[in-house]
Amino acid sequence: QVQLVESGGGLVQPGGSLRLSCAASGSGSIFSIGGMGWYRQAPGKQRELVATITSGGSTNYVDSVKGRFTISRDNAKNTMSLQMNSLKPEDTAVYSCYAYIYLGVLRQYWGQGTQVTVSS
Question: What is the C-alpha radius of gyration for the chain, rounded to an integer number of angstroms?
Answer without folding.
Answer: 14
